[in-house]
Design a protein that fits this description.
Layout lengths: L6 E2 L4 E6 L2 E6 L1 H7 L2 E5 L6 E2 L4 E7 L3 E5 L4 E6 L9 H4 L8 E5 L11 H8 L2
Antiparallel strand pairs: 1-2, 2-3, 3-9, 4-6, 5-8, 6-7, 8-9
Length: about 120
């Protein structure tokens, strides 16, 4: 199930915009491809990131994968609970498994992202 109220990157991150703050995580499709996530490396609060840039890593029982920022902006929060329990990304990728929150720099931050229908087409077998 792909939530309709989010935006998506081709690298399988999702974005939820709330009052000029964007919450970012990885999609259910991505966590399913990765398998059991055992470690997460995230950027620090205050870091400035560019859309498309590598901002961290997810380590799973299968591989290590880069996390790409879907937006340019400044990190305002990171999900500290993932340090002790990264497996929540597998069980709740669109909720408690969020990765970072950032303040977008662009006037129209979602212009380069996909809506749910387009993301569904991208991940269809």
């Amino acid at each position: 199930m792909i939530p309709e109220d989010l935006f998506y990157s081709e690298e399988h991150e999702w974005v939820r915009l709330d009052d000029e703050i964007a919450t970012v995580g990885i999609t259910d499709f991505a966590q399913g491809q990765l398998g059991d996530i055992v470690y997460v490396e995230l950027p620090a609060v205050g870091d400035r990131v560019e859309a498309g840039a590598v901002i961290g890593e997810l380590e799973s029982t299968k591989s290590v994968s880069d996390i790409f920022s879907p937006l340019s902006g400044e990190i305002v929060a990171r999900n500290e609970s993932l340090d002790g329990g990264p497996e929540v990304i597998n069980s709740d990728p669109y909720g408690e498994g969020w990765l970072i929150k950032l303040r977008p720099l662009d006037d129209d931050p979602t212009s380069g992202l996909l809506e749910a229908e387009a993301y569904a087409a991208l991940t269809a077998d």
